[in-house]
Amino acid sequence: MKPIWIVDDDQSIRFVLERALLRESLPTRSFTHPKEVMSALQTAADDEMPQVLVSDIRMPGGSGLDLLAKVKEKLPGLPVIIMTAFSDLDSAVSAFQGGAFEYLPKPFDLTKAVDLIRRAVEESQREEVAEERMPDAPEMLGQAPAMQDVFRAIGRLSQSNVTVLVTGESGSGKELVARALHKHSPRANGPFVAINTAAIPKDLLESELFGHERGAFTGAQTMRRGRFEQADGGTLFLDEIGDMPFDLQTRLLRVLSDGHFYRVGGHSAVKANVRVIAATHQDLEHRVKDGVFREDLFHRLNVIRLRLPALRERCEDVPMLTRHFLTQSALQLGVEPKRISDAALARLSLFAFPGNVRQLENICHWLTVMAPAQVIEPKDLPPEVLDGAALPVESPPVPAPVARVEPLDGLPAGALSLPTSVPDPVMAPVAMDRHGTSAWEDVLEAEAMGLLAAGRHDVWDELTRRFESRLILAALANTRGRRIEAAQKLGIGRNTITRKIQELGLEQYGH
Questions:
Q1: Rounded distance, CA 89 to CA 103, Å?
Q2: Cβ neighbours, 10 Å, residue 249
Q3: Most buried among 192, 219, 228, 499, using CB within 10 Å?
């Protein structure tokens, strides 16, 4: 974890905060005046940059408010906590206007100070996930004619900032298209920020998009930047735009028209230089006719429309995508990649994939964890494939060898990446027997019976350790190694997953 930077000319304040944060396993780095901080910002490596900055407001070497302004220019998403004496509360108001996360009055209660810093750390980590930069984002791969059309369109849009509407079924890779459009645009060095408008409750979506001022509503303890501000200078991806509440559509239209908006509870207009890429699996024309989507907003978004084909429409890509996802899953788990037989590929290619590319990726995760042998055979495929719907017989797919996709219109070919976020479970649905138990539960019971029959007295610890290891590895595979996100999906705390990873010897996995 990145350190907490503490700036104060009072050595006793620095000492007390350092010791308190050390007890909470939070690393620190201390400075005596702002000039040291600015010098350190120029030379610090990425993992040495501050997670949170805690600064006094009045120091012999300069003002904490001046430092706040300079730091915000370089790291706009960094939470800054300003320490101030009671007589400096007027200055604290100025601190909030300058973008401070919170102020900490002196003398402070140490427990409350640590709690405040922890809250700032959580906000910083949320911003890091939201403002993921594009150099790590991968390309797409496909040899089907429908995908070649998508590549060609991305290439032609590579020098444009025009608004794009991406349509396609759920799981077909609309966010990957948005990321490719961003990466091959003049805004490539700016942030790419994604938000699923259907996944956030209506009463919170406005704050997520536009941010809020401190005290704007119950629970708004600090000023918070919205996704539009986070994406300033870059691209904002609005997924499932068809589900956006009608009243918020009006606010979005206004932002798209003039680039200005107000934070919730705010009175000053904020300007954001943002390119918007929207996506939906719905028929927006029908939504307009039904009166649930604004026609003027539809026309504002529908400048360029890009339709992404479903996986069943490009079934010749299934073999190459399967091999790619198996390789990626093995890399994430630190195991040898599994191979898949031609017979298993043929069976997989006949599957209709109602969940599209995302479903294929999840199946490959499942096979990496669950397939018993190094070579995957048809019988190893998950029940959803073996028992699921197949493609029409009259147009069976022909498994094709992996082929290199030539660059089209300036778009270099690459490999279809793992999506940034995968809401579906890694584990495929398991078949239930007539007693209502699943296959893996039967295997677990048999393993327990075998250990008990062998006279083992550590059966609970042994099986619990193996179960927890598989569960954590599966979650890390699902979240691309992001431990905090994996903990959230498992329903456990951040400290719990960190402790379990250490206890189970899984330190090399995740980050």
A1: 9
A2: 17
A3: 192
Q: Which residue has the tokens 């017989």?
A: 393
CA distance 460 to 109: 44
Domains and CATH numbers, the chain: 4-128 (3.40.50.2300), 161-307 (3.40.50.300), 313-429 (1.10.8.60), 439-503 (1.10.10)
Say which residues have a Cβ less than 8 Å from residue 251's Cβ, sequence separation at least 6: 206, 209, 210, 261
What pLDDT does residue 83 have? 86
pLDDT of 458 above 60: yes
Nearest in space to 2 (alpha carbons), one of 33, 42, 34, 48 = 48
Instruction: Give the amino acid at 163.
Output: T
What lies within 8 Å, CB to CB, of 160 at 6+ separation is 185
Instruction: Find the Cα–Cα–Cα–Cα dihedral 88, 93, 98, 101, rounded to 10°.
Output: 90
Residue bearing tokens 């040898």: 336
Tokens of 465: 């350790």
Contact 357, 317 (CB under 8 A): no
pLDDT in tens, 112-146: 899 889 888 887 776 665 544 444 434 577 778 88
Structural tokens at position 188: 């490539």
pLDDT one-digit tens code per residue, 35-61: 999 999 988 888 889 999 999 888 887
Task: Give mean pLDDT, residues 234-247.
Answer: 92
Cα–Cα distance measured from residue 239 to residue 383, given in angstroms and rounded to the nearest whole number = 30
pLDDT of 109 reads 86
The mean per-residue pLDDT over the stretch 171-177 comes to 91
Nearest partner of 328 among 413, 427, 419, judged by Cα: 419
Question: Contact at 8 Å (CB) between 402 and 367?
Answer: no
Phi, psi angles (nearest 5°) of residue 354: -60, -25
Tell me the C-alpha to C-alpha distance, in Å, between residue 243 and each of 94, 179, 238, 247.
39, 21, 10, 12
Please give the Cα distance from 315 to 353 (Å, whole number). Answer: 9
Task: Give pLDDT, residue 417.
Answer: 31
| Axis-axis angle for helices 174-183, 145-156 (nearest 10) | 40
pLDDT band at residue 147, thresholds of 50, 70 and 90? confident
The residue among 183 and 399 whose pLDDT is bigger is 183
CB 263: neighbour CB atoms within 10 A? 23
The DSSP H or E segment spanning 329 is: helix 318-333
Distance CA 280, CA 283 (A): 8
Distance, C-alpha 28 to centroid of its chain:
26
